Every structure is written in C-alpha cells, then in structure tokens.
User: Which sequence fits this backbone?
C-alpha cells in the first residue's frame, strides 16, 4: 500500500479474509478495505464502482479463489497483475474467463523483480522510497531477534499463522560480533 501511494496511486483498496490484516492495511495506507469472507464479489465490485476505471489489481495470495475474485471485481480495461505463486491448479469457469474478454482485461504476470541487469531499477526505486521515508516496514515485523528468539517465536505460534514477519539478526553471536 505504501509503495502504491508513494508511486502515485489515487486510491488503494485491500481485500483479505483476516480482520487483523485489514486493520494493518488501513494503518499502512489503504483507503478502502473489504473482507472477502463476509462479502461476495458482486458486493465488493458494487462498493468499488466509483473507482472502476484505470484499475491495477494485484493478486498476491496465490490462491485460485483470489485470482478468480480479482477478475470478478475488475472494472473495464483493468490490469490484473498476478504476483502470488499458485500451488493448486487454476480452473476458471467459462463465465469468469468470459469476463476477461468482455471487460477487455489485461492480465500481467510477475516473477521476481528483475527489469534488467542486476539489481534492476526496482531495487534503486525501493531504496529511494525508503530513504525518503515513504515506506516504513516496522508494522510488518512481528519479531526481530537472533536464532533463539526466532525458535521461541515459532514455538509460541503452536501451528497458528503469524501476523507479521520474523526478522533474523545475525549481527552478533555467542562470543561477540560476527
């Protein structure tokens, strides 16, 4: 959300099934959030109707149902960027496939982040956004620590999903700095 805003998006909408992630999305700059476990694709599309033109929809979960939802909520001539890696087959109904055609959607694939010679413009652009203070990842980090703290945090999860990321810090180890 922060990158989209920093790069000029007029509005950013987040869709998820987890209320905590939706609250975090608002905190990170989403203008609108929708819980797709509580709303149908038609409900979400209706709510997004005033913003149906000039859309870039980024599917990042990599689940067949979220790819289908991305197509269903897209406005006319929207771009649908597929970023999430699918681990199950994607089987679109003829009706959903027909929406790609009728809406004249542009489906874009994205793999990694290389636009040219390493490291590519994306890395320089991201560095500039961090240096300008336009991206702050602190709200996304649940635990920051060494390997022992990592093991403790994972154990505490007891099989439940973590809200946030674990950042490992190997700058010091037993016996002093590395």
Assistant:
């Amino acid at each position: 959300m922060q990158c989209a805003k920093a790069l000029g998006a007029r509005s950013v909408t987040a869709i998820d099934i987890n209320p905590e992630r939706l609250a975090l999305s608002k905190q990170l700059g989403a203008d609108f959030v929708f819980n797709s476990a509580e709303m149908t694709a038609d409900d979400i599309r209706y709510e997004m109707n005033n913003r149906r033109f000039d859309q870039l929809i980024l599917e990042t979960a990599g689940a067949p149902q979220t790819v289908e939802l991305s197509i269903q909520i897209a406005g006319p001539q929207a771009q649908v960027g597929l970023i999430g890696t699918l681990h199950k087959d994607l089987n679109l109904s003829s009706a959903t496939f027909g929406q790609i055609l009728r809406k004249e959607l542009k489906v874009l694939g994205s793999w990694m982040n290389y636009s040219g010679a390493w490291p590519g413009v994306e890395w320089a652009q991201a560095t500039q956004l961090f240096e300008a203070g336009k991206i702050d990842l602190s709200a996304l980090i649940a635990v920051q620590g060494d390997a022992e703290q990592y093991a403790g945090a994972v154990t505490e999860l007891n099989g439940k999903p973590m809200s946030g990321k674990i950042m490992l810090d190997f700058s010091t180890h037993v016996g002093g700095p590395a």
Notes: The mean pLDDT is 89. The chain has seven helices and nine strands. The two ends are 35 Å apart (CA to CA).
